[in-house]
Amino acid sequence: MLNKIHDAEDPTTVESTRPGPLPLEDYAALGDGRSVAIVGLDGSIDWWCVPNMNSAPMFDRILSERKGGFFSLTPTEPFRATRAYRPQSNVLETTYETANGRARLVEALNSGSGGRLPWCELARRIEGLEGEVTFELRFVFGTQADTICPFLYSNANATTFHAGPVIGLLRYSDGVSIEREDDLEIGGRVRMAKGQREIVAIVAGQDEPLVVEEPEVIDARIDITDGEWRQWCEGIRFDGSYRPAVIRSALALKLLLYSPTGAIAAAATTSLPEGIGGSKNYDYRFAWVRDASYTIKAFLRIGARAEAKAAFTWLIKRLAEHGPLVCYTLEGELLDEVREIDVPGYRDSRPVLRGNQAAEQHQHGIYGDIFETAARFVAGGNVIDPQSAATLASVADKCAETWRQADSGIWELSELEHYTMSKISAWQALARAVELADAGHIPSTCRDRWERSRDRIAEWVDANCWSERLQSYVMVPGRDELDASLALAVRFGYDGRDRLEKTIRALDDKLRSGIFHYRYHGVENDEGCFLACTFWIIEGLALLGHREEARLRFDEVMEALDAKGPGVLTEMVDPKTGAFLGNMPQGLSHLALIQTAATIDGCPV
Predict the structure, then answer these.
(1) Most buried of 261, 326, 383, 590 (most Cβ within 10 A)?
(2) How many alpha carbons fall within 13 Å on the CB side of residue 191?
(3) For residues 447 and 401, is the Cβ–Cβ distance under 8 A?
């Protein structure tokens, strides 16, 4: 296994040729506001969809270890590796040490001084630090599960590669020696001495003319990109004791903000398993109302108003266009049918999917998510326009009309049930709708109906969803099963402190494994612990007045996560081994971290 990031005192020595798939915690993420590349500690970029996060992958080795495409820069000798992001930046640095020398790899998906470039530019700078280190360069073309045949094409200006609709260039400085160049692979070597600096980069687009940039211009843009990230971080208003962790998670969330539309992707990958060898593998390269709403609130809490406004505008427009659905494409369209892709999957975990079945579900939780977002938006001193206000009022009407129906719940289960958390989310939606109407932010025509429905929901929940035996709200009335998402009821301001206190303690006791928590009863054999649930429970403790207990618990979790990777979180973690599981970067994990840190530090909601 490759060495982890922070502690370089005794890193593990590894061979230059890896024996199999990397652990997910050995990956980091690069992004430019449009696409995200996933890069391993061994210098192999194993996932990159070009030009967009939801495009077909150009590199897919993470899902097909033996036949997938990848772009690697790896020392030819056994090496020790340490890595970290530059401070307040998504520019990544990895230092490799061999028996003969030491070199640094600096990587970024570049932006320009005016923002995102009109093409994708993946830049990789190698810096010689000590002695001599030779890197092997391999650019293996992916075939998208044998559905395309990449090829090289030369003209008077450049040799370009073509992969389906993607056209691109491999650009490199004079010290890079190319030894192979054909339709299957471009390969070569880079011999680095102390003080030497070389650049290797991919410039790519889709069905469009392509600019042939000089290598030194691409190289210089790495530092421009770093400066852009640092400038963005300077605007984050969070001065609590957890500022470094909050900044790192904010940077991860920023990678998931799809700048062409303002949509927020749930994650940048598809089908990374929730349990190795299992079938809980999903495509998260879409915009969920839930994830978008929570991310908007996290952005608002740390003062990232431009991002919050862009995402909120995108969300309101989708509600007006399509109605309150569970998720949409990043372009704001409806999802196509789910398709299975014929590749082995990460560590032979099938299926590998494109699309998501949640698009056809209904979840009452989206109502609460929408209105909590609107409430946070105006609480920050912002204004809702009349058209958006009318859209929100119509959504409140729909919530009041349908809350009695069974739904698929926050966990998108196939069984339609009267999930307790769904009812509490409907209560939350109507409670916020009444508050917004009373303050003049949305039309109040049906305000009294919303209020009566709100109160009826609370009565229904307290009459049907409480278990005296468990001393907790349960997942579904009549069944002694617990659901960790009920911890969110504390943040939502649901009535009844005594019952919420007891529920938090029951969730912590019954769903906890080590320092982490499962989503609900019965999943421990199929998946890992859900990171957001652990953060929700800890935040619930803090909101109920147990701040020091919450701080100790949060510190313990953060120490465990910091020991595993460079700050990019997946959806889940194996509680026994600490191995990461699920898609990445996982927005829900990062935003839950931000909210919990802010609550413990006493930052305004």
Answers:
(1) 590
(2) 1
(3) no
With 0-12 CB in 10 A as exposed, 13-18 as middle and 19+ as buried, what is 464? middle
Helix crossing, 447-464 with 386-402: angle to 10°? 40
Cα separation, 571 vs 272, in Å, equals 10
For domain 24-232, say whether CATH 2.70.98.10 is its number. Answer: yes
Q: What is the value of pTM for the model shown?
A: 0.96
Please list the residues that pair with 513 across neighbouring strands.
516
Nearest alpha-carbon partner for 57 in 65, 66, 48: 48
Q: Are 397 and 446 in contact (CB under 8 A)?
A: yes
Q: What would the two tokens of residue 228 be?
A: 């852009």
| Contacting residues for 107 by C-beta, under 8 A, at least 6 apart | 30, 39, 91, 92, 93, 94, 122, 123, 124, 125, 222
Name residue, tokens 């999903």.
282
Question: Per-block average pLDDT, block size 10, for the chain (605 residues)?
Answer: 36 62 97 97 98 98 97 97 98 98 98 88 98 98 96 95 97 98 97 98 97 96 97 95 97 97 97 97 97 95 95 96 96 96 97 95 96 96 97 98 98 96 98 98 97 98 98 97 98 95 98 98 96 98 97 98 95 97 98 98 83
